[in-house]
Amino acid sequence: MSAVLQNLVNQPYKHGFVTEIESDIAPKGLNEDIIRLISTKKNEPAWLLDFRLKAYEQWLKMEEPKWPNVKYPKIDFQAISYYSAPKPKKKLNSMDEVDPELLRTFEKLGVPMHERAALAGVAVDVIFDSVSVATTYKQKLAEVGIIFCSISEAVQMYPELVKQYLGTVVPVGDNYYAALNSAVFTDGTFCFIPKGVKCPMDLSTYFRINTEESGQFERTLIIGEEGSSVSYLEGCTAPKFDTNQLHAAVVELVALDNADIKYSTVQNWYAGDENGLGGIYNFVTKRGLAKGVNSRISWTQVETGSAITWKYPSCILQGENSVGEFYSVAVTNHYQQADTGTKMIHIGKNTRSTIVSKGISAGHSNNSYRGLVRIAPTAAGARNYSQCDSMLIGDKCGAHTFPYIQVRNQQAKVEHEASTSKIGEDQLFYFAQRGIGNEEAVSMIINGFCKDVFQQLPMEFAVEATKLLEFKLEGSVG
Amino acid sequence: MIHQDSKVLLEIRGLRATVNGIEILKGIDLTVRSGEVHAIMGTNGSGKSTLAKVLAGHNAYQVTGGSITFEGHNLFDLEPEERARAGLFLAFQYPIEIPGVSNSHFLRLAYNTVQAQHGKDELDPLEFEDFVREKMKLLDMNPDFLDRGVNEGFSGGEKKRNEILQMALLEPRLAILDETDSGLDIDALRIVTNGVNKLATKDNAIVLVTHYQRMLNYIVPDFVHVMQAGRIIKTGGKELALDLETRGYDWVGAEHRAAVEAEAEA
Questions:
Q1: Among A76, A248, A478, B255, which residue carries the largest CB count within 10 Å?
Q2: Does ipTM surpass 0.90 in this model?
């Protein structure tokens, strides 16, 4: 790879600072006592402790998945602290009571915790290590009946709702990391959009890992009742450490009849340095159940961070005419590894799904798309369209596509298209010959490549995603 | 056309260049003045396209000797994008496809970059749309072509028209057309060459790199240069191209060898 391209793809991480704040950290290690400790600290009802213990029991019997196309040393689950919360953890009545150090941290990250601040029209739940520290616009949303709060708060305030839906889309024993999460999850976001309500603003959660030896295990549950709609955004960053931190989240979405849930992620966890030291292991289970007729679940993700990404936001299309969508941009650089994609499980009649995946690999990184399209015997008239495009920058990186297609109904239609391209010297030279410099050229090529996905993002997020990619893949041309 | 108060735009002296360590250009001398049209002809592998790419600054080619001045500046001091902004334009033999980047976005960025260089106003997307549509008429191009990806899925002829459209937008001082005629049917050739002729003024110059005489029926050169094995071995007027068309290239080579031998004996 030429020096020009080399410079273009090597960029420092700008969210890598640590906040000096006193934290309440649980002793390292995982056992029943720790789970009981978490449950007690959070003042949970007995059923939730049972849920956790059941998950733990299953987890003990399970093995880490070996099939992803990623390599990493064995994780020592006893060396991780499963609870870390900034002190003091007292009940906050208003944003003014949030620790100023925390406010500064999120301001630095560009996350507005004051409702009057920049991103007007977006309600934010802010999660710092294991706990939610603030949720904005709660009152305004409550006026139309929307519940938007941390999952800990929901457990206290709306235990029946949480109990009704928690673990129904991702069962406690679904997979190794989902089981782990179900045992030790500490916080996350809860959204409930009641019947017929169109959420008047985008809802958003911002995740920040701060402590070196803690994992982040958040749990998100979004429920869209009949005829409701919501657009939800998620952003994440972490400081730079030489060690790896584990992030094992579970996200469950439930869409009832005619409900529409749009879930967008811009993931920018610390990816490790240029030699592959440090970074987040992002092992996440995200799944949506399109339970009702004509319901729709749409995932859009821009994955730029993490040392390792293992993530397959999926849709179970159970309701007749339900729709599942997956739009993804995954960027890897240096020694990052990503094995990401989706699962579209067609059960209901005339269910439709669209998969658009764009993988960009640079440096020594490895980028895999892994996707499953399953058409059940019941899914007459089901349709799927998948498009997987890979772009290589340089000649030391890899792009892989693993599509799995299982069709058990004769009246279904499944299409798959894939392509691989390369940003080459000749493309850059063509731009240069028209007066356009390398930085701008790379940015244009990448944005052109990702256009179909960026178009799916809410406006503010699309701008941020574009900047993030430019930041990650271009910049300091020497 | 050759005229009295023309200025030297390009001066190449003793230019040598290699690719992957193999010498392709072995001492090129060429002077191009404003208002002139030069045709560089020769067989495959004679170094014509290499000369075009070295002028534009492609980094696969290493210059190993000689000098090039462009409007009085040492061309080697300029990066490829600086050469473009200074008014040196290359119409590519094989224009590059850039999927997903809309042609109109690309054309506007190129146009505004050059405008900014000259301290002129940049155009917003709406203004540019009107401006570029006017220019497209010159090349008989369908406006829906603005919304497509740059050269993405274009036919050979469409790609070449897109190159000349860029020339029309950027109004270069020196335009090098590298085998612009290849892959064009006779109608497209007429449209493209007609477009080029309309862009020729007394202040700019055109260098046509071509294999065949047929383009020179439409764009009439003031000078025809024959390249062989990395050198210009013969220079003449437009009639030289007709000679080449009827007699082929071999006789020029033979004549050149004889001249070299005669010189050696004397």
A1: A248
A2: yes
